[in-house]
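ingest -> validate -> predict -> emit
validate: passed (alphabet ok, no gaps, 950 aa)
predict: started
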Amino acid sequence: MGTEQPIEDPVRRSGNHNTPLDTVLRHAAAARSGGARAVLVRGPAGIGRSHLLSTACQRLRSTGVTVRTVAAKPDAPTAARAVDALLAPAPVPTTETHRTPGAHQGTHDDWRRRQISALQLLAEGPLALVIDDAQWSDETSLRCLDFILRRAAGLPFFLLLAQRTDVEGPGVSPLAELLAQDRCSLVEPGPLGESETALMTAHFLGGPVEGSFVRHCVEISGGNPLLLGRLLAALNARGVRPDTEGTHRLGTLHESVLTSLIPDFLAVWPPSVRHVATALALVGRAATDPLVALSGVDSRRVEGALDVLRRSEIVLPGAPAEMRNGLREAVLAPLSEPGLQELRARAARVLSDAGRPATEVAAQLALLERIDRPWMLAVLRDAVAEEPNQATVRATGRVLRDEAHPLTDTERKDVHVELAAATARDAAAPALWHLRQALAATDDLREQASIAVQYGRTALGTNRTPEAVQILGQVLDALPEPTGITDTTGSARGAADRELRITVESALLITAVNDRSALPGARARAATLTPPRGHSPAERQLLAVLSAFTALDSGPADRAATLARRALRVEEPGSTDWTVPCSATVLTLADSIDEALAALDRVLSPSPSHRTPWPSLFALAGRSLLLHGIGDVPGAALDARAALATTATAPPLAHIALADVLLSQGETRQAGKVLDQLANAVPTLDQWVWEWPHYLHAKGRVLRDLGDAEGALELWQRCGRSLAEIDVTNPLVTTWWLSATTTLARLGRRSEAKGIAEQAHDRAQRWGTARALGLAKVAAANVAEGTARIDLLTEALDLLDASPARLQRAAAEYRLGRELLGRDDAPGARRHLRRAIELATRCGCPVLGARARTLLVTAGGRMPQLATAPLDSLTQSERRVAALAQRGASNKKIAETLFITPRTVEMHLTNVYRKLGVRGRAALPKGLTTTTGRTPARHQGDGMPAPSHR
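emit:
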């Protein structure tokens, strides 16, 4: 700190800030007239506060005002005070010496001594005290100046302060208190506009100045005078003129300007500043102590060096010190590679000793050519486990290949397993390679079992599934049968062996359940197993996959759903295995929609960065298909796109889910493109049990909507054959048979359609859900004659009304309306067509709605005035939960009232908030209706709204 030092920014000499300056001078004139005033000039770095203060001080001095200035510094010593630089303490009058012989700093007597000093100066004429960067000023000084200001009424006293708004400091709070007073005014210089920028441009580069050049300068600098001045100076050095040609060069030059100035800075800096800059460039961000250790410069000189770097805008404001990322490489460029390697190793050691996070230390180690110290590998392994990235994974991999420092077999195995877990998040292939290496590095059967399970989970959705099944089968065959005998050490070896065996068995089955070649053998193995009770995670995994096999074999649905519920009996949020997605899929097929949604929410409840990739992406895709099936097409679109946006290797089911949504929205060609991209990206798609028939069904729908009925039939029949080849009989795995019978009947090929419909009816009877039975009735109606068609469609509607299949019910209403119209029953046709329009609109399916509207007009009906408010998009379950919440019921009370879990309540409320566009229950609208008690038996909490019958 110093006295009477001019405060100016030479970059702003040509700037024009007349309005803020006039305001400051106007308040100064008011103060000079005998009304003590204070002005706070506030704004971000580089906005021109210092230049404004400097200009104001010059003007005030020219009019005879005594001006004393000081610039506060960040992290100044505690003993250094701004008021000491502005006002020397005056002797206390003899009449007051009895109060305190030696006034301490910050006491009333000390402030009184400063006031006396100010009064002595005021006796000679007007006085202005100025503090730049007052946010860094000590609190005592600002309160002392406030004390003087309060007691200077009627005196020509002016207090001028400047505050940076982009940093914190001890002066922020007292400045806010000072500003709250009537005697203090606020001046906030705004960014430079085009006219001011044009003046600065002409000053640096000459004229004439092209308007487009000025606009680009404003855009690049954001109107920041300091940044603009640096930019213009650098452009001037490069011979850029403010014309049309110069405008084209601006975009590429701005980012390199400051970087280009680094060599000049390095040439003029003293050694201490160069050492600190190099140390900070290595680590990017650090407190003082690590910089002292790394640079070899003492703490006092480190602080001085950081001050120099901050003024040069190489280091960002605030603490700890942080260098701009784009400049780090430029600062390190003069170093030789051996010297840089030595410094990086030293930086890693310093950061490690300072207790910095492993990821921060590993960032230095990853840049080393050799990882040759045991502690280095330990840090890398910690970083890989905590927050893996490509650099740390590659560095750890180099250790495995370093023959000069070989690892033990155990270390090698452990590192391979850790790298597999890290790389599996982004790509399965390298993870599987690491797991194969880990398997080869150990002879311990239990370790092999654990690695094989990880291999199976990682191989899901890849072409390595058969290999995973083989590895798991070999390990399973080699595992000893559990004996239940406790050994001499007291450990329950038998129980552990049983848990391990179940874990491997469930991993084998879950891996095989989606691979056509492995499915038959896995099904035979599953048939020999007795479903466990579900007391352990391994048992719950086994229950989940057994429920999937039961569902594939057409159940019945109650048995499959019971196994799935037992698998989900213990809530494990953010589960890292496939238990929840697998069980949720079965519950969806069984029409237990609320339970399926609540289960999927377990996987998706953590933030995306903490989810396990494939299970969570599969859960998103599965939820999209589920929502589409119950008639929430917009919600299905959100989930499908989220799954595809998360990673470049999204599961195929996400592509299929998006295609289903696009078809319902009338975007047929776009749906075709999505499916074609999937087929090109996954050439082995025909080996997948679940995705392949879904793909064939969706692709057939695309061809049908484009007018290629024969091509569509070929794909649907291929879909049926592919399921028959692996003996998958569940009619809801995909409803290709409903599409096929509809198209065959339209083409007059009822005999072909009849066989398909009869088989679907038998399988629907075996599965037993209202959805399956209702859709089977629709298929039967396609091949029926006369009034039997109307009877079957009526029965289908009764069944679908008891199911969650809202969109499929809309289609059935449309078919019945069309059939009645064909039999000259226009009133009946209009009734069902209106219902179809209502349901299709609420589902977000414009294609079906448009067809029904066209037919309704033909039937002589008016277009219905639909209530398309967001409330109408709520499902029955969502409406019941929202109504109780709107009345003030807690989640626990809602769960008890509706016989559901609190997690299900949370899931429904989340969907309600999304659909209604509100943030919480306080914003829920009135008009919600509900019925208390258990969900009606025929709906089973299916999540389907009850449309009005007219």
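The first strand starts at residue 37 and ends at 43.
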